[in-house]
Write a structure and sequence with these properties.
- The chain folds into three domains: 178 residues, no CATH class; 141 residues; 69 residues, no CATH class.
- It is built from nine helices and nine strands.
- The protein has a nine-stranded mixed β-sheet, sandwiched between helices.
Length: 435
């Protein structure tokens, strides 16, 4: 039947997303091996190819596409493959009775060359066993022996329907150990419980990946903090008139410091954000366990939070410190740039004042030259008039050359002065028209 309305193109996809992380029902007694391998955000292709190799080894049909998860039955072993953002997980489970829950991990029954060639780097490898309710309960000494004498943590889970124990150590076989006991679990409850505990193991490890970079970054940031304090102290000192070169040196050092801080932030910010996200998932899964204390044992939540919370707090502290140092470096750089700009403005003002003084001096010199030019032109003009009058006088004309020359002086000088003024005015006008 076709729907009478238009569907959103992602309707089926968002509904399917609700079922991608479902659990597999488990019927105790059951043994489970779980591997989480870090492959990065771009490693999905090689992980899918590795998964297909395992299917081919068992003669199973190869699917055309593999999504975020895949389920298959490998003989009497059930496998669930899941793709996460940064890692992939393989969960192999096998139903059947056992005497020692960790003596024969399910991983031993898989092709060993396939395990050795697994892409990425394994961050968690867990051997989990679920005991049935009809098996005899183990004493504290027997539990300690199962976990190689290490301190055991544990609690009642699912409101008392089950019990969980672990030491969260890596044992001689390279696997961590988790023991669950059925106290009234249904198959689906057992599946959900195993999935949540395995997710806690994987997400806890992924969250702690941010701690080593945080410690390394803290060393770099401490050095940057000290150098920023030195630069701030130098900036606060009284500066002499020759402060241009020191300011340039300080600006260069501040720029270098800001670059180093940003480089540290670029390397660690994503890791810190991912650690916080994984930590939130761990807290959510721990709450879903609905734990109750077993007398004499530290609960799983208490143990994990006592170690994981300080690690995440360290990551948060370093992240905030990076941000604060970057802001301090930016403020100091802005202050220093402002001081450099003020120095530049002072220098420019002094230069303009010097140019004004030179312009005034040039104007006075020009006026002086103009006066001398008028005198010189007048002198030569009067001389020419005198020659003219003497020539006329020598021809018998009734002219007194000396008297006439004296009378021509004001006239010639006035004409010369007016001519220079007109020429100056025309040049000014021509200069304005060119501008």
């Amino acid at each position: 039947m076709s729907l009478p309305f238009k569907e959103h193109p992602l309707r089926h996809q968002v509904v399917a997303e609700l079922h991608t992380r479902t659990h597999e029902p488990l019927r105790p007694p059951e043994r489970v091996s779980h591997i989480a391998a870090v492959c990065g955000e771009r490693g999905s292709g090689r992980n899918v190819r590795h998964l297909l190799r395992l299917l081919q080894h068992y003669g199973l049909p190869v699917p055309e596409t593999v999504g975020q998860y895949y389920y298959a039955t490998l003989g009497d072993i059930r496998m669930r493959w899941e793709r996460h953002t940064e890692f992939v997980t393989y969960t192999f489970s096998k139903q059947g009775s056992f005497v020692h829950p960790f003596a024969y991990p399910v991983l031993q029954e898989l092709p060993q060359d396939w395990l050795r060639e697994m892409p990425g780097e394994v961050i968690t490898a867990v051997s989990l066993a679920i005991e049935s309710r009809d098996m005899p309960e183990r004493s504290a000494e027997e539990l300690s022996a199962l976990f190689a004498g290490n301190a055991v943590i544990g609690s009642e889970v699912v409101g008392g329907a089950g019990r969980a124990w672990s030491d969260l150590h890596i044992h001689s076989d390279g696997l961590s150990r988790i023991l669950l006991r059925d106290q009234g679990l249904s198959d689906r409850q057992a599946g959900r419980l195993a999935k949540r505990i395995l997710e806690i193991s994987a997400y806890r490890a992924m969250a702690l990946l941010g701690l080593p970079p945080a410690r390394e970054a803290n060393i770099c940031l401490s050095d940057a903090d000290r150098r920023l304090a030195v630069v701030a102290a130098r900036m606060a000192e009284d500066e002499t008139a020759e402060s241009w070169d020191p300011d340039a040196e300080l600006l260069s050092e501040l720029t270098s410091l800001a670059s180093e801080i940003e480089a540290v932030a670029a390397r660690t910010t994503y890791r810190f954000e991912a650690s916080r996200a994984y930590y939130r998932v761990v807290q959510q899964r721990l709450e879903q366990l609905r734990q109750r204390r077993i007398e004499g044992l530290q609960t799983i939540s208490e143990f994990i939070n006592a170690r994981l919370a300080p690690a995440i707090a360290t990551c948060d502290s370093v992240h905030h410190r990076q941000h604060d140092l970057a802001e301090r470096a930016a403020r100091l750089t802005a202050l220093l740039r402002a001081r450099v700009e003020v120095n530049l403005q002072e220098q420019n003002r002094g230069l303009l004042e010097s140019m004004n003084r030179r312009a005034k001096l040039q104007l006075r010199l020009q006026e002086t030259v103009e006066g001398l030019s008028v005198i010189a032109i007048g002198y030569y003009g009067v001389g020419l008039v005198g020659y003219l009058l003497k020539g006329l006088e020598s021809q018998g004309l009734p002219i007194d050359a000396i008297y006439g020359t004296g009378l021509s002086v004001p006239l010639v000088v006035g004409i010369a002065w007016l001519g220079i003024r007109r020429m100056k005015a025309r040049l000014h006008k021509l200069g304005h028209s060119l501008d």
